[in-house]
Amino acid sequence: MNIQILIDEQPRELPAGSNLAELLALLQREPRSVATAVNGRFVAREARPGTMLAEGDQVLLFQPIVGG
Amino acid sequence: MTDSFEIAGVPLASRFLLGSAGYPNPQLLAEAVKASQTQLLTVGLKRSAQGGDNGFVAMALAAARAQGARLLPNTAGCRSAAEAVQLACMARELYDTAWIKLEVTGDEHTLQPEPFELLAAASELVKLGFTVLPYCTDDLVLCRRLLDAGCAVLMPWGAPIGSGQGLLNPWALRTLRERLPEAVLIVDAGLGAPSHAAQAMELGYDAVLLNSAVAQARDPVRMAHAFRDAVRAGRQAYLAGVMPAQDFAVPSTPVSGHAFVLS
């Protein structure tokens, strides 16, 4: 059974029971290259494996950029 | 002679804080950082869905590392305390620093800081162990509240971000300096010319932070040199004691009566 979530506002299907660390692996994102938030809340790197994703969750990925 | 200042107990040899955005290419960014001799370089975060950055951030990180500069991530784009706290937590993880330039915007036209959300975010971030450098207005009461909340420094604006207008309200900035003599004060934003930076330093500010004035110059590297020298000149002038202005002339050459008495 699959669930649908939003990654950076784009819909994506995942196997039910997936966690945030598994999602990053699926996206082929190096774990240290991004910071993560689920439903507007920061999820620390070490908390990703224990963060189970549910239907309708909104996942945002952030990366470094230049800034003033 | 070293004339350093401290943020949260960390000495910084340069009083010129520089932003890393908006340079024509990564190489010019690196050269401008080097020319500035900055010890604190601002960086940001963005949603990864917005694509790559053509090597700018990698060059910024390398340039900072090459001269031992710390990174100062910002919370640009946040409109509420809650957003800013979440973004700051992400910045701490990505950049491995607890220092945060706290920005919470309250007006889209002027990009004026939202004082109430800023204070709420600052209070929360201090509790979470951050060293908070808030970008704020020059409102004395707000600045006092930010210090009471535990902010390490205050960074009042000179003028709206990227406007290059210089110090729009020198009276307010001077008043802040006089009323908060123990606070570390940094003019952030709105500086366009090196003379603006010198003016801020002559007022007794501990440092300046700017980005666009260097990044958008015809020659960013030369402009970084110019600002570096202006910051030093302004600081030296402050330490030397700028003479008070007055409304009447005073002869600088000592004379006794008339130079010639012709009869």
Automatic annotation (TrEMBL), chain A:
SUPFAM superfamilies from the xrefs? MoaD/ThiS (SSF54285)
Highest taxon above the source species = Bacteria
Which spans of this chain does the record mark as coiled coil? none
Spell out the Pfam families in the cross-references: ThiS
- What is the protein's given name? Sulfur carrier protein ThiS
Specify the species: Paucibacter sediminis
* Lineage of origin: Bacteria, Pseudomonadati, Pseudomonadota, Betaproteobacteria, Burkholderiales
